[in-house]
Amino acid sequence: MSTDIWTFKYAPQKFDDLILSENMREILKPTLKTLPNLFLCGHAGVGKGSFVSVFLKETECDFLKIN
């Protein structure tokens, strides 16, 4: 029996796995190349943490993540 938490086990692993509107995809995609400082805000469950996790995996940059 697996002890993985479902939300972590099936979390998006790359940018293309994220469920985003085309407008948001166009806005966020360039950040993977420009590596800006980011401040994300929004309601719970909109995907801020998922985007940050994917961003950190794809860019392999140094980071300080405050939740």
Overview of the structural elements:
- The chain is mostly helical and about 70 residues long.
- It has four helices and no strands.
- The protein has helices at about 5-10, 20-30, 30-35, 50-60.
- The longest helix has 12 residues, at about 50-60.
- It starts with 5 loop residues before the first helix and ends in an 8-residue tail after the last helix.
Overall geometry comes to globular
Distance between the termini: 30 Å
Radius of gyration: 13 Å
Give the biggest beta sheet.
none
Number of distinct helices: 4
Helix content: 40-55%
Question: What are the segments in which pLDDT stays under 50 over at least 5 consecutive residues?
Answer: none
The helix-and-strand class reads mainly alpha
* Average predicted confidence as pLDDT: 87
What descriptors fit this protein?
single chain; 67 residues; mainly alpha; 4 helices
Topology at a glance:
Blueprint: H1 6-9, H2 22-28, H3 31-34, H4 48-59
Can you summarize this structure?
This protein is mainly α and 67 residues long.
